[in-house]
Amino acid sequence: MELSSLLHDLHLSPSSSSEKPLPSASLPPITELLTRLQEKLIGSSSDAETSSLIGRVELLFQTADPHWLFSPASSNRDGGWAELQVAYSSVVSALIGCAALPLCEDDSASLPASAYHGIPTRAAAVCSALTALLGTLGNVGGQSGVLLSVCPPVCVFSVTHFQDRPWTSPASRAAARSLQEALLRAGRWRDSAHLLTGGEENRGMLGEILDVLQPQLSNEVWLAWTLLQVTRPSLSPHLSRLLPPSLLLNDHYRPENCMLGVHCLHHIVLNTTPADLRQFNRAEVVYEAFFKHLYTSEAAVMQAVLPGLLDLLAVLEKPPSSLGPSPSHRKPCRHDDVLRLMLTHMEAENKVALRRVYAAALPPYVDRMGVAVCRHLRRLERVVLGYLELLLDVSVDSGLSDSVRQQLTNQTSLCIKLLDGCSHGDVQRLLEQIDSSCCSSEVLCCLATVTTRTGR
């Protein structure tokens, strides 16, 4: 019998030629077995020995009597349960250590793919063993102390290996996904977000998972997976641990990571109470982190920053549109600072990608300003007129796809119609004076949609 052989190898029972299953009463305490297994896993000297041990641990979790597996050895029930939880946590950590990733001395560098040789195979084996443990725990039922104690490291391990990374393979990713599903089933969680935040009947594990992740939370993999699944009101109690790594990622030199950091900060703004954000000047710090990105030339980063900054401004100060009439002169505010810088950059910008981002983000800012936008009206008029000239550039730009060209043309037509309405038809009369020989047929067709009178 495999269990008898395992016990003999671990010097926990005398050798026996009997192949009959051993009764639970004749078995040593499970905590003693788990301690020996932990020592063996940590001290294994070869991949073959490690793989054999992992396989035998998996078989143990699959075939042993669940009552024996999860029964405390001590007569002191409280102390016995604590000892059992520590024993399982230790053996789970030892299993996970068998597929540990090599460390990189430089945080800004990455290891070559060869550094991860053998890890996908070991990770798949560890996932199978842990899935067997969770399957047995799930059959026992309920969120037991053992399950809650092993959940954080198991969750982190599965997330590490179910993503497409240099240290994973299709087989290890599939095994890690199966492990994550087994964890959710065992704890009666609906999905990963429910696992993190919990509910009325199920305890959330966010705090414990952050304890495991804390040394690595600046890594974009962990931060994005954890933070973006936590919503209000569960995020506020952990804000002091999630905001600093988000700010670090926001400053990353790679645009894709920087953009992810912006998304994380925006998620924090949307899912944290204004009072918590304003406490300790957190909102001010996030504002400065966002504001400096207004000088970026990366369209994708700008596209993420502008909506986040608009939502943050509502936390920092009252919208200018909500302020009633006042006998005193209205003092400039952060809304003015942001809109002024936006319009300055919009006026000088010549990249189509950035112009599209600015044009899409401008209307919400103008709405937020209300009548206070009059302070910026001259610059705003120049920007609108300058961006309408974009129609001529679009008509001759061979680098744009037909769909993008058509979209820009339609938006330009709409802007001209709105300007015509604001000027009581003056724009339409001016457009009728344009010399058709100076424009392409595409531009003339666009202008025709405006100059055609509709009986108004």
Can you describe what's shown?
The protein contains 23 helices and no strands. The protein is an all-alpha fold and 456 residues long. 65% of the residues lie in helices and 0% in strands. Helix 16 runs parallel beside helix 18 and helix 20 (390-396) runs antiparallel to helix 21 (402-422). Among the domains are: 1-101 and 117-213; 389-456, no CATH class. InterPro entries: Tti2.
How would you sum up the global shape?
elongated
Largest sheet: none
Radius of gyration: 31 Å
On the 0 to 100 scale, the average pLDDT is 84
Q: State the end-to-end distance.
A: 93 Å
Query: What is the H/E string?
Result: HHHHHHHHHHHHHHHHHHHHHHH
Low-confidence stretches: 14-21
Structural class: mainly alpha
Q: What percentage of the residues does DSSP assign to strands (E)?
A: under 5%
Structure summary, number of beta strands: 0
> Given the structure, what is the number of helices?
23
**Helix content estimate:** 55-70%
Give a nutshell description of this structure.
By secondary structure, this protein is mainly α.
